[in-house]
Design brief:
Elements (H helix, E strand, L loop, with lengths): L9 H11 L11 H8 L13 H5 L8 E2 L13 H10 L3 E3 L12 H9 L4 E3 L5 E3 L17 H11 L5 E11 L5 E12 L19 E11 L7 E7 L7 E6 L4 E5 L30 E13 L16 E2 L7 E2 L1 E15 L8 E9 L5 E8 L4 E11 L1 E2 L2 E2 L1 E2 L2 E2 L1 E10 L4 E8 L1 E2 L2 E2 L1 E2 L3 H6 L2 H7 L4
Parallel strand pairs: 2-14
Antiparallel strand pairs: 1-2, 3-4, 5-6, 5-23, 5-26, 6-7, 7-8, 8-9, 9-10, 11-14, 12-13, 14-15, 15-16, 16-17, 17-22, 18-19, 20-21, 22-23, 24-25
Length: 459
């Protein structure tokens, strides 16, 4: 007989009490990263009720079940409000898979090793930027694994993004009307490189001469012909009080121009509901938002492990739901023992169409699993939810050096006020460009103004 040490509502009471007291530390029975450091298994930090969907719902929902409009009210509190509405009224479905207990399957291997190695080495400097105890730029991994405040959590999220030293994601984007029709279909690439906090690529932990930069990031489009060659490059200063530099190449004009970077709540291309501000739920410098606070803690359902579709040669995903059966990606979700919900307000955007955003962060990994923004009236406006995965399934794998690649797999960006949906998926290849990770060619090929012009076909 298994004797329970804690009653069924122990975790719920703990979360409510900690938020009311203004105290945050991931875990219930012990700090979650202490449990991870000891065994690699975060489950020791949580009571039985928070270890499975069966335990949480007392068997009313089980692994292998599908969440639909018929049973979604049983798990309403595990979902952000817009995702609940999508299931309840638009035909979205979620397939439940087992909760992942091996933390090394929930982020890149080298990144997690660096998090454990560098724990306790981060602090804020006088400008509020994350530095080492010696005052140098950050050296790699999550800076505050046992974060004790909303700011520590969000600062780490803003710094890390894709958690690789460099990536180039090949992407297919589909922009749908409220009637469920695909109005725009784009092929694009999204490249990222971190010149600091490097854990996989040499030189480590910094690129010499670029220690004052946080990241280089670009996006470019290869299809359709009307937008082919259009590209944008963001160069982030390490100082999180400063807006990035934003450059763009517009193929119609065949030249590079610099754009204002505080207009981050507008789509880059026609039809999209995705903004620069949305990237990784932390697309803006940390201190352009403010009043960070934890508003709730509790379990969640999210796609943190099974997003990769190994069965399709180009990793493409199936769809369902909505008026035409193609509004939502097929999504596998699992029971997450603890998600921390952080609220923030746009303090350096006087014309922002949003009044605040709420971001759900997995306390085990500090990854963003969902975001909802609110309009100036305080009404739900837009949502951003993605699925991650280790690219290893059914005997197939796509490797990042010695280990299977870990990354995001697909994203929904939804405007609940207009009913318009943008779906994105990471694929193996778009015309002439393949998904790459930690490859030295990424910077020269995708992350300079010369690269933008070359992609645009102007040289």
């Amino acid at each position: 007989m298994h004797i329970r040490r804690f009653d069924h509502d122990y975790g719920r009471r703990h979360f409510l009490k900690s938020v009311a007291a203004g105290v945050f530390g991931g875990g219930v029975l012990m700090p979650v990263w202490d449990a991870i450091a000891n065994t690699g298994d975060p489950s020791k930090a949580y009571p039985d009720e928070l270890l499975s969907i069966e335990g949480y719902t007392k068997g009313r929902i089980n692994t292998g079940d599908e969440i639909t409009a018929d049973n979604v009210d049983l798990v309403k509190e595990l979902l952000e409000p817009i995702k609940y509405q999508q299931i309840k009224t638009m035909g979205r479905r979620l397939k439940i898979v087992p909760t992942t207990r091996d933390i090394m399957r929930l982020s890149p291997w080298e990144y997690m090793e660096a998090t454990l190695k560098n724990a306790g080495q981060a602090r804020f400097d006088e400008r509020g930027n994350i530095v080492t105890l010696q005052g140098k730029p950050w050296i790699g991994g999550t800076p505050f694994p046992n974060a004790t405040s909303a700011l520590e959590l969000y600062a780490g999220l803003t710094m890390t993004w894709g958690r690789h030293d460099a990536c180039m994601y090949a992407i297919r984007e589909y922009d749908l009307s409220a009637d469920g029709d695909v109005q725009f279909n784009y092929d694009c690439g999204w490249a990222e490189l971190s010149p600091i906090g490097r854990v996989s690529m040499n030189p480590k932990p910094y690129l010499p001469g670029r220690e004052n930069k946080l990241r280089y990031q670009s996006v470019f489009f290869t299809r359709p012909d009307s937008i082919k060659g259009t590209s944008f490059l963001n160069i982030w200063d390490y100082d999180q009080n400063t807006f990035p530099e934003l450059y763009g190449y517009v193929s119609a004009f065949k030249r590079i121009r610099q754009f204002p970077t505080d207009q981050r709540f507008e789509p880059l291309i026609p039809g999209s509901t995705l903004y620069l501000s949305d990237a990784w739920a932390a697309g803006d410098p940390l201190y352009t938002w403010g009043n960070y606070r934890v508003v709730s803690r509790g379990p969640a359902l999210s796609g943190v492990s099974g997003g990769w579709n190994a069965e399709h040669p180009n990793w493409e995903h199936k769809t369902h739901g909505g008026p035409k059966g193609k509004t939502f990606w097929d999504t596998q979700v699992e029971f997450v023992p603890e998600a921390v919900v952080i609220e923030a307000e746009p303090v350096k955007f006087p014309r922002a169409p949003v009044s605040k955003k709420r971001v759900w962060i997995d306390a085990r990994t500090q990854l963003p699993i969902a975001m909802v923004s609110y309009d100036r009236r305080g009404e739900p406006y837009r949502s951003f939810d993605g699925a991650y995965g280790l690219y290893e399934s059914g005997g197939k794998s796509f490797n990042d050096g010695a280990h299977p690649y870990w990354s995001w797999a697909h994203v929904h960006a939804f405007d609940i006020q207009t009913g318009r949906m943008t779906r994105l998926e990471q694929v193996r290849e778009i015309a002439g460009h393949k998904t790459m990770v930690n490859d030295a060619v990424i910077y020269d090929r995708y992350l300079t103004n010369a690269a933008l012009m070359r992609i645009g076909g102007s040289d």
